[in-house]
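Collaborator request log, item 7. Partner lab (contact: R.S.) asked for a structural prediction of Bcr/CflA family efflux MFS transporter to inform their binding assays.
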Amino acid sequence: MTKKRYYFLVFILGTLTALSPFSIDMYLPGFPVIAEDLHTTVASVSLSLSSYFVGIAAGQLLYGPLLDRFGRKKPLYAGLLIYIAASAACMTAHSIGALIAWRLVQAVGGCAASVTAVAMVRDLFPVKDNAKVFSLLMLVVGTSPMIAPTAGGYLITAYGWHSVFILLLVICALILAAAALWLPESYAPDPAFSLKPGPILSGFLSVLKEPAFYTYAFSGAIAFAGLFVYVSGSPMVFMDIFSVSPKTYGIIFAVLSIGFIGSGQVNTLLLRKYTSEQLIFGALAVQLVVAIVFLAGTMAGWYGLEATLVLLFFYLFCVGFTFPNASALAMSPFTKNAGSASALLGCLQMAFGAFASAMVGLFDVRSAVPMVAIMLGTSLAAFVILATGRKKIKSLSLGVSDQPSPYVH
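Returned to partner:
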């Protein structure tokens, strides 16, 4: 594969993985406007974000077996068409209940893009390059929090919140066209792959039994949930508590995203000297310390807007290391059933994200304490799982088990 072809494929896969972040980030500045228009509260509007996370989590389990049975592109096309139809429905929603429901459907369609992209990384690139490729995908995905909230803020101010879903519909149509024209089919359809519930469940269970998968998938997903907590809680924290405007919030969101994007690119450089295992362990340890300092100071009332921004920046910088390294390590054992593994990985990431973000919406937020406390909880749980799982993997590699794991790197 030529270098030009390499980066072109990364870019196309990056647009697929960016669809859901755009869908999440672009309408965030419109939460107060949506709440006023639909005669509800900002906290209730945030449930439309949680329903999107739930839709992604559930939908990926659907697409995983379909990707292994029919190849990568046909399920992708079906999902993107569902997304387009649901975006049109969101645009015309006249109640918060309808918006929450259609966001769920929109997510079920859109998640086909992300799960296909992860599976195709495993298909198209050598295992040793996967962490690097995932870091490069983050560079493309990282444009979302820089562009989407800012663009959404201007769109909502000029044309109303409905315009956001019109733009999302157009973006998805363009991604669908690009995938059809330039993305190769990377996996031959497997007629022998059963779509019956029993074999599908057995396939998912076999994936879960791999020590490398359950260690890095669960620790990475729970750590990554801290990002969803921030995304869900930040509109209330910044616009309600610190009283910034929707446009200013969009700018703040874009600036903070630099931490998340930058860490992915620093990760690419550090991979030349350190292993993914070393990087994810170090990043989670620092993330835990930052979260402890953040919560202690927030509870004591020490932090204003500027200090909150600085601590969120460093927290997101740490989170940015978990996605590429955890994804690469969790996917490394799989070839034949990479679609199912990718789906389960994505499901875990979104399921924990949905749960954590929903927790934020349950609180009557008058300070940043609930958001930061949940961020600390995710960091602590992820670190404990990683530390415990690493011992299990190490014991297998040293031959303590009767079946040493071939998946330790």
